[in-house]
Each structure stands twice: as structure tokens, then as C-alpha cells.
Amino acid sequence: MNEPSLQSGDAERVSAWVREYGGAVRGFLLGIVRRADVADDLTQEVFWRAWRARDQYREAGTPRAYLLKIADRLACDRARGNRREVHLDDDGWEVVAPECDEPAPHERLSQRESQSKMAAALDLLTPLQRRVLLLRYYGEMEFADIAKQCQSPLGTVLSHCHRGLKALKKILTDEDPA
Q: What are 80-98's pLDDT values in tens digits?
């Protein structure tokens, strides 16, 4: 393996990125792939790639945007592979890893219901609308950066964001409270 030489501060910089942006990267990926285990694997790959490319990184823009670009590329590559993965046990129950330091069960249930509603609503959007909204509101990227990342004109990105927000509002407010 031909690893670049360790520059002073490289390890500290990448470690700080993991601490500061790890949650945002994982959350973005979870919004795209919808599976915690896959999001965890992809998050690890994002930081591994950032580590391997540490000699090529230049301070242009924010580290968060840089990491989300890597995450977005990985998610796109994974989607192109069109791998269908199932996370159910033999009886059809979702396999959930034990959690600790979490809110009370009723609070978790409420959070999961909200997350489930949002995930279902996001699934009804076009792939580009979902991608733009996740990059903008979860990734906190600027529209110009999103346009570059998506290789779309700025006006198109703004249009997808507007239509996506409008569709989400309609989807989430039209649900029957049962």
C-alpha cells in the first residue's frame, strides 16, 4: 500500500472532521440509503477516502461540503450498482441493534414515527428533489455548491428545492391523523 507521508496535523484534522461532521455525513447518507448499517459503512468509507486524499485537500470551501461531496458520490455510485438489500430476519421483523443512552421508549417511538413519515414523504419526491433537499437542509450546503455537485444549472436546483418543499408540505399535511 502506497500511503502518502503523514503531514503534521493531518491526523488531527481528519480526526476533528470525524468528530465535527461525522453526524452530518451519516445523517445525509441515512437520508439517501435509508438503512443505518449501510449509512454507517458509507460514512466510514467517506472518512477513509478523505484520509487517503489528505495530501490533495486544499482549503477551498468548507470541510463539511467536501465530505458531503464524497458522501454524495458514494451514494450515487451505490445507487448505480442497484443493489437491493433487505434488513429483515426470517420472520419479517426488522433487525435492530441494541441502543444505549437513548430517550425513553415512548419518545423513541414518536421520533421513529416522525422519521418514518418523513422518509416516506421523501420517497415520494423525485430523486433530484430528494438529493437537493438533503444536501441543502441536512448538509447545509449553499445552492451554488449543490448545483456544482449535481451538475445542474442553479435555476434547476432552486426549482427542484422549491417543488420538493411544496410537495413535502402537501404530503405531510394531507395525511389522515389516525
A: 764 444 444 555 555 554 4
